[in-house]
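Q: ROK family protein, please. Structure only.
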Amino acid sequence: MDLGGTKIEAVVVDARGEVLGRARHSTPVKGGPGEVVKELYGTLGEAAQTAGLEPAKLAGVGVGAPGSVDANSGTLAHTSNVAGGWEEPYPIASDLGDLVGGKVVMGNDVQVAVAAEYKLGAGRDYRSVLGVWWGTGVGGGLVLNGVPWRGQGSAGEIGHMVVKPNGARCGCGRRGCLEAYAGRASLERKAHAAVKKGEKTVLFDIMRDKGRTRLSSGVWSKALKEKDPLATRLIHRAVAMMGVAIASVINLLDVEAVIIGGGLGSRLGPQFVERISDAMHPHLFITERKPAMHVAKLGDLSGAIGAALLAGPQM
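A: Structure for ROK family protein:
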């Protein structure tokens, strides 16, 4: 299962990574971790049903989650984009395991998604990759010389690299993080502020027409196609800041490829991946050896498939 800021995606896969069943539910906007566990279980049950299974019959259950994940204890802490957020470690794996009747393992959402892309998707031809997941927030994951690199547990948090000292306030409480400029939640806050100041935009009209309560990736995509000035300006700034952050990672680690995923990354597609590549260029030390740039091949399912890969050594 992939726990995101706006959705929970669950898939049932076989030993080859083939998807047998899937389900998607909205992430609770409030209620804290208890509500999140209930919704995770409901989504899992629906996915298992579409695969013709009971949840208790699954070989294992994996959850990819945003924030600080302790895989050994199965806890999640320091979330800002899920169900109102919480800071202290909460035993998601244990609580969900009690409902499922089996073992649940956890990993960082983007780290597991990048691992899935490395094994089954856009990263299959490379030994070292950086994954950047552009959605409600901005997350990252690394595979270095064939090994997923997690550091002490939170390596790859590119969204919290500072791209502008004393810059915009981020949801994490710090200033100048990439996520403060490129994360969809931050983009939405900026759009609301602009409208309050009298700026015109079709963003919220599109949101209402689509029956949404938030500015989803589809809303941003449609507004960009309609050449909405506010959407165009905010996304242009997001791309510029992503260029700064990704180029800095390339200068440090010199990986072979960059994979762009997440709701916005997958929705906006190859055209915007090329724009991010162009935004990186002025900041690269070795400009003649750019990394290969790809959109995540597994799309919205990369996080859930990566979480499934965590759950069973047979995969």
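A: Brief note, in case it's useful. The mean pLDDT is 92.
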